[in-house]
């Protein structure tokens, strides 16, 4: 089953309890029948573009109402559109417009067979993500995270074959912590804390990266990156042909470069 932002190639069983509406600890149980999911790899430095490297200010800027303007239906922004690397502002208005945006994000996520979607992927540069590990309307839990922050990462690293709606048809292995502890706000603005593991943790971390301007290939090993380099270059060419502008980034330029990680880690 190709499920868009994060594809699942193997049969899986997912158990999710109702998502909390108030601040309290919470745990999802997720059982995934894929050997790639449980492969345990030693953590090593990977090529990661850090937020600091891009010179973003440390203090979060608050989104204005014009930052949250959108037109339905939403469209998926594809690599190498600079919107995917832009800074995403914090949300402090929990109004009808935000609810409509979330509805539209779920809509396009289901239409494109996704299981997770971040706001910058629809051209809205704010700290917002939605996901549903089941990937079907009416099935599983619809999860909305506003202004999420990770307070804890598991030491155990797992490998998973990821895809991304902004990189149509491209799948490759990415290593990430097996579980995370998150502080966020819900759609009504209430704060809550949640522990995620398994597939929900995987989806969250992929989308959380989007909110920091980090893309999944930033976290791939050089060897894995080599396997999709041609496809990334094809997307860069597609962008140039469509916009008439040079690609704002080139995967070729990072060949052989190994940048110390650390971003997305405590
Ligand atoms: Zn993605």
Order of secondary-structure elements: EEHHEEEEEEEHH
Q: Helix count, per DSSP? A: 4
Structural class of the helices, strands and pairings? Answer: alpha+beta
Q: How many strand units?
A: 9
Bound molecules: zinc ion
GO molecular function: metal ion binding; peptide deformylase activity
EC number: 3.5.1.88
Function: Removes the formyl group from the N-terminal Met of newly synthesized proteins.
GO cellular component, one term: chloroplast
What this model shows, in words?
Mean pLDDT is 81; it is low at 1-53 and 260-266. The two termini are 33 Å apart. The strands form three sheets. Strands 3-4-5-8-9 form a five-stranded antiparallel beta sheet. A two-stranded antiparallel ribbon has the order 1-2. The protein has a two-stranded antiparallel sheet with strand order 6-7. It has helices at residues 35-38, 96-111, 198-211, 222-243; strands at 12-15, 29-32, 116-118, 128-131, 143-153, 157-162, 172-177, 179-185, 191-197. The protein is α+β, with helices and mostly antiparallel strands. Helices cover 21% and strands 20% of the residues. The protein has four helices and nine strands. It is globular. A hairpin with a 5-residue loop joins strand 8 (179-185) and strand 9. Bound molecules: zinc ion (ZN). Zinc ion (ZN) is lined by residues 5, 164-166, 206, 210. Zinc ion binds at residues 5, 164-166, 206, 210.
């Amino acid at each position: 089953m190709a499920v868009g932002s994060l594809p699942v190639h193997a049969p899986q069983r997912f158990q999710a309890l109702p998502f909390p509406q108030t601040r309290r600890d919470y745990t999802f149980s997720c059982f995934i029948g894929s050997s790639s999911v449980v492969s345990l790899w030693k953590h090593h430095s990977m090529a990661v573009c850090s937020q600091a490297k891009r010179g973003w200010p440390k203090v979060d800027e608050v989104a204005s109402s014009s930052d949250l303007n959108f037109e339905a239906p939403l469209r998926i922004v594809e690599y190498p559109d600079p919107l995917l690397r832009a800074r995403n502002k914090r949300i402090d208005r929990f109004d009808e417009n935000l609810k409509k945006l979330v509805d539209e994000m779920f809509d396009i996520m289901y239409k494109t067979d996704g299981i997770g979607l971040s706001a910058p992927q629809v051209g809205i540069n704010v700290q917002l993500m939605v996901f549903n590990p089941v990937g079907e309307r009416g099935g599983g839990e619809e999860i909305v995270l506003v202004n999420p922050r990770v307070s804890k990462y598991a030491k155990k690293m797992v490998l998973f074959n990821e895809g991304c709606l902004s990189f149509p048809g491209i799948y490759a292995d990415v290593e990430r912590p097996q579980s995370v502890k998150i502080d966020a706000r819900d759609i009504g603005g209430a704060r809550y804390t949640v522990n995620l593991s398994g597939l929900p943790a995987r989806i969250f971390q992929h989308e959380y990266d989007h909110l920091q301007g980090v893309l999944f290939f930033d976290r791939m090993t050089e060897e894995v990156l080599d396997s999709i380099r041609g496809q990334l270059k094809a997307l860069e060419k597609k962008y140039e042909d469509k916009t008439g502008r040079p690609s704002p980034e080139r995967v070729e330029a990072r060949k052989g470069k190994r940048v110390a990680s650390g971003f997305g880690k405590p």
